[in-house]
Amino acid sequence: MSIIRVDAHGPFHHRAALAMLAAHAIPGAEELDGTTYRRILTIDGEPALVTITLDPGGLTAVTDPSVDDPAPVAALIRRWFDLDTDTALVDRKLAADPVLAPLIARRPGLRLIGYPDEFEAVAAAVIGQQVSLAAARTFASRLVTAYGNRYAELGAFPVAAALARLGPAEIQQCAGLTRARARTLHEVSRLWAQGTLLHGVPAADARRLLLDIPGIGPWTADYLLVRALHDPDTFAPGDLVARRALGLDRKAAAARSPAWAPYRSYALLHLWTDAAYR
């Protein structure tokens, strides 16, 4: 096994990160125990069990089997957990807002926890459209059981090519999705089977690309800019949780958000965390 230490730049609210991971964890694919999180990652083209222990200074990852070069794994984890961001700078900017100030005081060092794989992020967002987190986890777990590669008693989320080979009807029957959602998941699987589409693309272009996919609307596109692209300056005015927390309608929430630039994504995450990831 290999032990890889990755330190955070600035404060890291590791318990909020764990709460977010727990809220979205797919049964059979992800496990949490205290401050430890486990899942399968593909490293050098092969599956590996990665056990990550989070703490206020960053995290320690243990890979089984060992890796020849830990640098790419450390880089993936840094991006996944947003560890290079200076959260002290973000917190100072957002604390000027009277609604956000108490949230930041409760959870300094909140980071944009994303996904280790772009297709998994997009597929999870599609699966979770207009259903509860519990239902989304159940649907995703069925796909992992049926089509995910297994290693060390856990299953990996299916790769895009595996789902692309299925028809929408097969995806619907397996996961229990609606017909429309199954069609969208099949389409994103087909597109991502050809390669990563969002990484390195400017946020505005990525949003247009996502909105061109049938079944992906503005909320899902904005959500994916935050969770898949790690864009620091996206706000989703259509997000019901955020609007309720602000006590504003869509138009008023959109008008207020420019004051949080260039860290609107972090403002959105604070609102989400306070409402849903406690």
UniProtKB/TrEMBL annotation:
The keyword DNA repair applies. Coiled coil: none annotated. Residues 127-275 form the HhH-GPD domain. Its EC number is 3.2.2.21. It catalyses: Hydrolysis of alkylated DNA, releasing 3-methyladenine, 3-methylguanine, 7-methylguanine and 7-methyladenine. SUPFAM superfamilies: DNA-glycosylase, TATA-box binding protein-like. InterPro entries: AlkA_N, AlkA_N_sf, Alkylbase_DNA_Glycosylase/TA, DNA_glycosylase, HhH-GPD_domain, HhH_base_excis_C. It is an enzyme of class 3 (hydrolase). Pfam families: AlkA_N, HhH-GPD. Keywords: DNA damage, DNA repair. Residues 3-117 form the DNA-3-methyladenine glycosylase AlkA N-terminal domain. This is DNA-3-methyladenine glycosylase II. It comes from Skermania pinensis.
